[in-house]
Design a protein that fits this description.
With about 950 residues, this protein is an alpha+beta fold. It is built from 31 helices and 27 strands. The strands form 6 sheets. It has a 5-stranded antiparallel beta sheet with strand order 2-1-5-4-3, sandwiched between helices. Strands 7-6-10-9-8 form a 5-stranded antiparallel beta sheet, with helices on both faces. Strands 12-11-15-14-13 form a 5-stranded antiparallel beta sheet, sandwiched between helices. Helix 10 runs antiparallel to helix 11, helix 27 runs parallel beside helix 31 and helix 28 (about 785-795) crosses helix 30. The longest helix has about 35 residues, at about 690-720. It starts with a helix and ends in a 9-residue tail after the last strand. About 25% of the residues are buried.
Amino acid sequence: MLWNFLNNLLFTGKYIPHGHCYLWQRDLVGLHIVSDSLIAFAYYSIPLSLLYFVHQRQDLPFRNIFWLFGAFIISCGTTHVMAVWTLWYPVYWLFGILKLITAAISVYTAFILIPLIPQALALPSPTQLEIINHRLQIEIAERRKSEARYQTLTEVSPVGIFYTDTLGNCLYVNERWCQIAGITCEEAFGTGWVQSIHPDDRQRVFAEWYRAAQEKLPFQSEYRFQSIDNHSVRWVFGQAVGQIDENGEVKGYVGTITDITERKHVEEENRLLNESLERRVAQRTNEIEIANQQLQIEIAERQQISTALWELTQLQKAILNSANYTIISTDADGVIKTFNRAAQQLLGYSVEEVVGKLTPAIIHDPVEVEQRAEVLYQELGVKIEPGIEVFVTLPIRGIPDENEWTYIRKDGSRFPVLLSVTALSDSEGNINGFLGIGQDITTRKQAEKEVRELNTAMQNAVEGIGRLDIEGRYLSVNRAYAHKFGYEPEEMIGMGWKQIVHPDDVEMLMLAEREMLISGKVEVEARGVRKDGLFFYNQITMVKADDEQGIFNGYHCFMKDITERKLTERALQESEFRYRQIVELAEEGIWVIDSNARTTYVNHAMARMLGYTDSEMLGRRIFDFMDEQEQQLTSQYVERRKQGISEKHESKLKSKDGKDVWTYISTSPVMDEFGCMLSSCALVYNVTDRKQVEQQMLQLTEDLKRSNEELEQFAYVASHDLQEPLRAVTSYTQLLAQRYQGNLDAKADKYINHIVDGASRMQQLINDLLAYSRLGTRAQEFEIADCNAAVEQSLCNLQIAIAEKQAIITKDVMPTVMADEFQLVQLFQNLIGNAIKFCREEVPIIHITAIIQDDEWLFSVRDNGIGIDPEYADRIFIIFGRLHSRREYLGTGIGLAICKRIVERHGGRIWVESLPEEGATFYFTIPIVNSCNIKF
């Protein structure tokens, strides 16, 4: 089927060429060829023009429809090419498919074109574009005029104004900005403004700037400018907002800086003198910052405009209306023209009430105006009338006038302001008005008042108070502090603290000073030296002081005279020292408890006896140092003490590390006049060594008893099982004598072999029994034993068996313990030998490990042998406890019994964990208390 389709599609088949329809008339065929060819050429050239047009106009709307037009025109041209082709080659199926494709593209293009027609009609016509362009030109002209007014305002503004691009490159700064920063406009352009920021503040300012830029938030920060000569430093409050274009993207930043150097100095003094005042100032400053942030948000919302000129115009209005200081502009005669929002809020007047009136007559105190006129007269030698001339005399001469004034609100209330007056000039340099910017300094004035009051209170304080710099020199002291040392406050300014401290206490105070730098506060007692050479005791509290950047700049010192107390304490200490020297030098423990059995005193010997320090035992009940059984007995002893009964008894206490400490205690209660026990004093003797000897003797008795029982069992075994091989030897020897006397043949050899085998088994059994019986009787004393060497020796003893079975034996690093090294070798040899013997057909794999578990070493020997049924896990450690016949596995059944005996002699345990055909792991322990400085 596919072949037929391709044949019809690509080959002529049974069809006749289309030229036959024209009867192959040359003129008619030529006419169709020329017309179809020209049409196809035209169709192919049109998409090329469209492609060039679309490529040149990247902003062309409805780009996809042009691609559809191109496809439609190319498909139409192709149908005309096929019309020429079918004149000679009748590929009508292919021609029809091409027409079908052309039809599909045509229909889809028409379907897509229908909804685009309203959008195309909505595009502005050339006439409309010309009208819009004319309007934009008019608006540009108006905004250029506004820009000129804005430029004049920014140049005379008392705050620094700057403009940067998105990368932080400075594009514009006004003259006030250059005055504050200490550099010229040319030096500030680009990245030059960065050098004017104080080195200690640059990293912080950059971080805050970039964080605000990333989050698209207003930038606000307080930082320092440092002039190029590195001497002049000015504090500023900087704020900036991003300029947003029509696409909502930030294209630059515009901001202002306000000189707050004086405010910073006042804040620093307030913070150092009183932390409470600092919190209030910080709270108020925070409120101002919050208000500024809210205003900045309003400015940012207003600055979302379409063009740069309109943005600058809006910025001018935003600066006037969002500032937190009053801005009042007048004409050359002093008539008010501008009255910003902050002025309305602070003074209570509306714009309509003040615009067009003279400034001094409305908001200034006439008395202050007259006083200022007199001051100017004395400075300039020119008579100044009390009026607007008082405010503009200096600005007219090119000198900015900045003074403190009192503003009068509409309701008659007053508040202080810092007023800065600057002359405004037109484009020709003629003065056409004045600009007054007033900053409410009520908070600063209140702070200054509180500082003065605080200084007065500090000078009159009874306790000595001093302020020192980072070099330890006094910056200020109150009278109490100075008089205590015999000086006047003025005499101590600039004096180092070491001059008034006893020489023996200087090093101690230097250490305390270092501790204060870390912790922030330290208290210490030292001896002070008066001016007359006498010394006294004082208690000193040093508190670290930092500036607003958190940099250490000195500390406060609070001093209290404690001479009388120290003399009293010394007398008591001397008395107590004599008593304690007698008690502490005693070799016996002394333990004093109160009526509630709580420890009130122990001497060093008592504390050492239990492994504690004196302070660790004080306050704890005596029952905390013993187990439950001993607590019951001791509670009875305490009750008898309360009855006034003295007695002597033995008691078992618990040391700090959990060990038992046996003591012999002689107690004596101290009763008050009513017969109630005040305390009980005990003389405590350590008898642990004696108790240990007694326990060792008991243990030896038990060992002897068990050994006797085992010897009895051995005698029974020797009289029973050991007789069997002996009888075999006897029987076969007799048989050999009866039948083959004088004539030995092959059977004689067989009998002889039986004799040898029986004798060997009997010998092995006797040897194992002897080894088992000698474990307790001929054992060596414990000494430092290296388990690594013990394992290596056991492997050396088993090298033949290892080679025969090709066994793989691995081990971890073994510890060093206190043990009988010979028995350790025997222990490892028996366990490894069993693992090799009881193996399956595969190669034996054995691994030996040792780990610390609780207070003992846990050893393990793991193999891949035949395993053991858990039911017989205990039976294998019984002497002669075999689980297999001698024909299956050789042996006497004593090896694991020997292992158990060795482990128990060392104070440990041995057991096995296994399943049939899954290998076995033998575990045994050796207590760490028997070890000596365990090493791997």
